[in-house]
Amino acid sequence: MPIDKIDQIATKFGDSGNSKDFENKIYRKSHILFETLGTMDEFSSYLGIAYHHSNIEFIKEIQMHLQNINSLVASDYDSDLYNILIQIKPEDIELLEVKIQEYLLKKPLEGRFYLPGSEKTEPGAQVDYARALARKAERQLNAFVDYTKREDLEQAKKYLNRLSDYLFVLSFNV
């Protein structure tokens, strides 16, 4: 169904300061749920910019994983909807580790502090900024898990942690 009318985009429901999760439960927009979803969205959006500067196709796959994590965050883990969502698997984390190792073999790093974004190409600087946003998203997801006691997001937390490592190493290779 095409979206061709403003009321399909601007529902005006949020004008009161409320919003809905994936299952249509209503929360205040200031709720930690939306801070978490927004931080993840900010990170994924910037990854899109990094993709256009680097042309690394794997970045699109990462963005899909971030969308999947957001769907998990925005759903109750004991609902029927949650059970059909795509989970982060250990293999997803292992793939990041394999890619990190491949880049390190290709271009080993020196054991020193690097100025973020300043010692790289422009695409590398874009990827490095995405790394900083990955860390921000990771902190926010951890805060959400601490607040909600959601044990089901452990793989997502690990994925974000390893993802920032991947982006750090990638930033020296684009």
Q: What proportion of the residues form beta strands (DSSP E)? A: under 5%
Q: Give the helix/strand class.
A: mainly alpha
Distance between the termini: 39 Å
Low-confidence stretches: none
Task: Fill in the keyword field for this structure.
174 residues, mainly alpha, two-stranded antiparallel sheet, 7 helices, globular
Structure description:
The chain is mainly α and 174 residues long. The chain is built from 7 helices and 2 strands. The protein has helices at residues 6-9, 32-54, 58-73, 80-83, 90-106, 122-148, 154-171; strands at 18-20, 26-28. Strands 1-2 form a two-stranded antiparallel sheet. Helix 2 runs antiparallel to helix 6 (122-148) and helix 6 runs antiparallel to helix 7. The longest helix is centred in the C-terminal third of the chain and has 27 residues, at 122-148. The chain is globular, with a radius of gyration of 18 Å. The mean pLDDT is 94.
Summarize the model shown.
With 174 residues, the protein is mainly alpha-helical. It is built from seven helices and two strands, in the order αββαααααα.
Q: What is this structure's SSE topology?
A:
Elements (H helix, E strand, L loop, with lengths): L5 H4 L8 E3 L5 E3 L3 H23 L3 H16 L6 H4 L6 H17 L15 H27 L5 H18 L3
Antiparallel strand pairs: 1-2
